[in-house]
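User: Need the bound-state model for heme C:
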Amino acid sequence: MKKALKVGIGLTLGAVVAVAGAVMLVGAKAGADPTDAAQVARGRVVYAEQCASCHGVRLEGQPNWQSRKPDGRLPAPPHDASGHTWHHPDPDLFKITKQGIAAFAPPDYSSDMPAFGSSLSDADIWAVIAFIKSSWPEEIRRRHTAMSERSKN
Ligand code: HEC
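Assistant: Bound-state model below.
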């Protein structure tokens, strides 16, 4: 009897571990991996179609991106290593792209950054972030990864 109970518990634990493993595998897709060639290729297309008009075809941003325009709004910043984008961990980059700057700014803040939640799938958003990350030098990527890891805690 005792032995049967132990086997039963063992099987149940095994099933729980298997389910958790499967969930983690599915979850792993929700992320931006700059070494995943397929994800980066998809992101390159999304970027060209949806982001390049403001953030620049070479991710260089708009001129004088740190100074507000006459209408009080900020120009689009670069997404390459010279910009500020890499100072945000992955989940924040995802949120800004999906919900717009409004996700982080006070309610009366006006910005030209659109929210892409209704026009891009989550997978497309992660892909474009993977593409942006793939443009960063190794050292910036390393620091960004460390920061994204810390932000999970
Ligand atoms: C119509 C112009 C426009 C388009 C198109 C656009 N952006 Fe932006 N984006 C901006 C502006 C302007 C800002 C700065 C917003 C502010 O701080 O007010 C910004 C800011 C950002 C930031 C925050 C950067 C930082 O350093 O804080 C991210 C991330 C971002 N955009 C991602 C994207 C992505 C990804 C796309 C394409 C899917 C995209 N943007 C398309 C104008 C645009």
